[in-house]
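protien #1 (seq + structre)
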Amino acid sequence: MSPTRRQFLGGAAAATGALAFWRCSVPEAQALRILILGGTGFLGPHMVRYAQMRGHTVTLFNRGRTNTHLFPEVEKLVGDRDGQLGALEGRTWDVVLDNSGYVPRHVRDSAQLLKDATDHYLFTSTAGVYASWYGADGGMKSAPGEPDWPAGGTTEDDPTVVLPEPESEDVGRWYGHLKVLCEDAVREAYGDDRCVITRPGLIVGPEDTTDRFTYYPVRLDRGGEVIAFGAPDDPVQYIDARDLAGWSIRLCEERVSGTYNAVAPLGGMRMGDFLEGMRSVIETPVNFTWVPGAFLAEQGVPEFSLPPWTNQDGPFAGATSFRADRAFAAGLTSRPLAETTIDTLDWWKSLPLERRDGMRAGLRGGDLEFGPASMDAQMEREAEILAAWRTSQG
């Protein structure tokens, strides 16, 4: 039997209380001067807020174009990672957090400039660096096959992808490949003992601009018959941006080094538990109909439109089976699904109507392919798929 909303929230409160230790301020003598490269997108603001809560002093370096209204009390240095780093020269900080590095040349320039001006460098990479995502030509796999996903889940020791075009800086095409080289640039500048690399999977929660997790609580809040994607035992992984941000700050406080997969919860979750957990804290009545991944693919549902679920019959069956043992041993914590669900839904409902009419993920096949769509349009597409599924079952 599914837990009631009250029971689920009670469990969430208990688990959240267990995180209180991590949310208190550090002693004044241990307060850091933190430089964040970026800091105003999705993950960055959560880093800033957590650092401030811990008593640290933050400086932001970016182009001054995104969310410029945020953090008026914080020092902001304006520049560009593409050859305009002058605002960083002659300054010192204790640590630097880099969550805006995508081009190896940019990361190399900043790391080399700051290696004697900071003690420690944290680089936010991606779980997309692993070779299992890609085919023989270096592009994303289009069908299951070599290299296979590791049977026991991907660890930090598994092979990473090699950039087929060494001079390319095409982030859209070679995102994971370039992140590998960015990691190398940080290690080259700081050495293995003065830097830490995090490799998050799907980052979710309030302020996410991709809607890849947000789709689920918003859809369930509408109620009615809802497609449950794949099968109840399909693996699910994600990480709340606030958990990743807080852990990143604590890694810097403790000068932790090494490379860590950043996914949660520890040991993963199953799709059935994921959907039932959300339903437990959303009061609108919902009825799930399970539709296999192979059928969804036949209906033209894009492979990456429904994370954190992945089609277990497709080329990315292992993309929700990363091992995060090292990260949790190094202090990563994971807040309850209930908290992430409620906070994300509340945030979504606070957005302007124009934004809420443009869900950027979900069932985007057919007329919705590759473009934002209202939830009404998403549900029309869902009804079409459900009707086709029932027809196929006779």
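ok now protien #2
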Amino acid sequence: MSEKPSDSRPIGVFDSGLGGLTTVRQLLRRLPHEHIVYFGDTGRVPYGTRGEDVIRRYAAQDCAFLMQHDVKIIIAACGTVSSVAPNVLKELPLPTISVVNPASRVAASVTKNGIIGVLGTAATVKSGSYAKAVKAAKPDAKIHAIACPMFVPIVENGWNGVKDEVAKLAVERYLQPLKDAGADTVILGCTHFPLLAPVIQNFLGDDVILVDAGEEAARVCQVQLAETGMLNRENEGEGDVNFYVSDQPSGFSTLAERFLGVPVKKNVHVVDPGTL
């Protein structure tokens, strides 16, 4: 009996900042033996308020950087890039995963009343990407997309606790129309937003299903690597994670730990954005 194929090359993950670490968190849970290279473009964050041409250029540069590390697959753990620059991913000579399609398919399958909310950056909402993907799976779905630009700084400042008044007020302000519409399923379309999930859940109620776009992308990655014989079967221990950022922000370790769920004390490298 022949041995199953193995691919020890790393998984590449990128985001406009550190929010994509929530996707890495899910990859570590599902694929502990895999090596991961993460690039957070912290020197040029945010992407969500920039023009489409700039977003596409940054996405192409981020992917090119990861390919220099011989990654076997790339996950765009950025709702903005996944929404505005999907063609950048499709044109790459290796498998890619965006956060839009996996989350949209799940939302379409679990909703009971067909009313689905989408929370994202201004660029994500403007693109209509989630609405298009959801309707491809469920044509009669009613989509309510809401841009929540304040969620990112709230999370990065650590104001995302269930008792934090800043988080509670922002969630109420943004999501009241969604609550009034009776949405029973909500896509967290930015990888920062899972850190606000408890506050969002408290406001919308326990009956509302929250779909974590980053988690669904990690699930699809696991399935795709298994089906194509690209899992790392040689490593019996925990895989290495190398972190690259285009600017190391003040309090990086604290921020990264908030997203990743575990301390980040090594393998952090700063890349000059001018070299991308």
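The first strand starts at residue 11 and ends at 15.
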